[in-house]
């Protein structure tokens, strides 16, 4: 007897397991640092409200249609003349096929248009901060043209001031990419040869992720961007520490890393910029690499020894990425290059 009960409960639990797991997976979409349902700014909040309203309305429609559909099995045959039949059919077509969609689309536009409008880069009395983001296969170049003391350039991380609108000017160096910070609002295409603009704001200091949202090749999913919104004064200090003059001193700071710098000039300088040493922009700017939270646009966390590990294994860590293999360099050279690059922490 007990045996049978046990078996039955187990079966019941087993049967519930699938739907429960599915629910759990679906609910993960409601939180996290890349969820539109976890808004961190005014535009994203409006988008989330519209999303919930649409979800609620769609649920009501689904339930109503299901009830009507079930009712059609139950109801008794009504005798109608062909003319009556046509009139009833017409009522459904006009009501459900024209009036309902027109009404719901109108309501959607009433709320949707202002939401979209607040992301347009319309003139403001005080011009907002401009941050330029350039998509590359498969990494992000980020430029701060408005920095006091000259433009600042970084890669794979975006620091922005919180509590004020920021205009993002986005473009691409190769194929079409998509700039998307789900917690701040709408996404926008990054198109080669054209600059798209979007205005977004973070309410308060926060850290979250952005993601390339337009399929751009093999490592599209590994094209992630670390975003951090900070207070205005912290933002300015962050920029000041990344002025060329500051970074150049950093790159040349001690004799110990002289061999690594030489190896860099021979093998890496044609693609990477390190302020004060090299100027190329084919790969990510490495001038402040030591201060990053991850490497390879989110492929691996930054920690001691991570850069050497990336240099040695990047072809396995991010297959197909556009950096050539470093198999011609021995492990100790790569280790010294890694150790030096990790010291570049403004
Ligand atoms: C032909 C150009 C090229 C050369 C030469 C090159 N790299 Fe790269 N490197 C790249 C590209 C492109 C990426 C971006 C890969 C990705 O994430 O998809 C990259 C990524 C990196 C990264 C990760 C940067 C980040 O923001 O996460 C480091 C560190 C790096 N390279 C160091 C080096 C070193 C050190 C050398 C010399 C031994 C070197 N690279 C040589 C093109 C190059
Ligand atoms: Cu992309």
Describe this structure in words.
The protein is of the alpha+beta class. The chain has a domain at 244-342: Sandwich (Immunoglobulin-like). Helix content is 42%, strand content 19%. The chain is built from eight helices and 14 strands. The protein has helices spanning 2-28, 42-74, 82-117, 232-240, 244-251, 258-267, 306-317, 331-342; strands at residues 129-136, 139-144, 152-155, 157-161, 165-172, 177-180, 188-190, 196-201, 206-212, 224-230, 273-274, 278-279, 294-295, 300-301. The chain has a five-stranded mixed beta sheet, with no helix packed on it. Strands 4-10-9-6-7 form a five-stranded mixed beta sheet. The protein has a two-stranded antiparallel sheet with strand order 11-12. The chain is elongated and about 100 Å long. The structure holds heme C and copper (II) ion. The site of copper (II) ion (CU) has 7 residues, from loops. Copper (II) ion binds next to loops.
Task: Tell me the layout of helices and strands.
Blueprint: H1 2-28, H2 42-74, H3 82-117, E1 129-136, E2 139-144, E3 152-155, E4 157-161, E5 165-172, E6 177-180, E7 188-190, E8 196-201, E9 206-212, E10 224-230, H4 232-240, H5 244-251, H6 258-267, E11 273-274, E12 278-279, E13 294-295, E14 300-301, H7 306-317, H8 331-342
Parallel strand pairs: 1-5, 4-10
Antiparallel strand pairs: 1-2, 2-3, 5-8, 6-7, 6-9, 9-10, 11-12, 13-14
Heme C (HEC) is lined by residues 138-139, 155-156, 219, 267-268, 270-272, 282-284, 286, 289, 295-297, 307, 310-311, 318, 321-324, 326, 337, 341.
């Amino acid at each position: 007897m007990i045996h049978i009960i046990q078996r039955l409960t187990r079966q019941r639990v087993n049967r519930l397991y699938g739907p429960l797991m599915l629910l759990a997976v679906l609910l993960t979409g409601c939180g996290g640092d890349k969820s539109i349902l976890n808004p961190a700014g005014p535009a994203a909040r409006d988008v989330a409200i519209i999303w919930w309203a649409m979800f609620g309305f769609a649920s009501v429609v689904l339930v109503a249609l299901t009830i009507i559909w079930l009712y059609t099995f139950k109801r008794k045959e009504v005798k109608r003349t062909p003319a009556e039949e046509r009139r009833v059919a017409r009522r459904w077509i006009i009501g459900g096929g024209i009036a309902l969609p027109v009404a719901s689309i109108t309501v959607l536009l009433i709320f949707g248009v202002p939401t979209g409008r607040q992301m347009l880069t319309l003139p403001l009395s005080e011009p907002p901060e401009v941050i330029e983001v350039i998509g590359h296969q498969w990494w992000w170049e980020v430029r701060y043209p408005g920095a006091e003391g000259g433009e600042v350039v970084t890669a794979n991380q975006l620091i922005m001031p919180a509590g004020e609108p920021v205009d993002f000017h986005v473009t691409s160096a190769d194929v079409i990419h998509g700039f998307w910070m789900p917690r701040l609002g709408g996404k926008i295409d990054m198109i080669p040869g054209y600059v798209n603009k979007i205005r977004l704001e973070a309410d308060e200091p926060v850290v979250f992720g952005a993601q390339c949202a337009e399929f751009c090749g093999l490592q599209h999913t590994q094209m992630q961007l670390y975003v951090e919104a900070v207070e205005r004064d912290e933002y300015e200090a962050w920029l000041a520490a990344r002025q060329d003059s500051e970074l150049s001193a950093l790159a040349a700071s001690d004799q110990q890393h002289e061999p690594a710098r030489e190896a860099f000039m021979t093998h890496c300088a044609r693609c990477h910029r390190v302020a004060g040493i090299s100027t190329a922009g084919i790969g990510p700017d490495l001038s402040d690499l030591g201060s990053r939270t991850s490497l390879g646009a989110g492929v691996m966390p930054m920690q001691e020894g991570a850069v050497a590990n990336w240099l040695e294994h990047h072809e396995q860590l991010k297959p197909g990425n556009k950096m050539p293999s470093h198999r011609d360099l021995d492990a100790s050279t790569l280790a010294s290059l890694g150790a030096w690059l990790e010291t570049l922490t403004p």
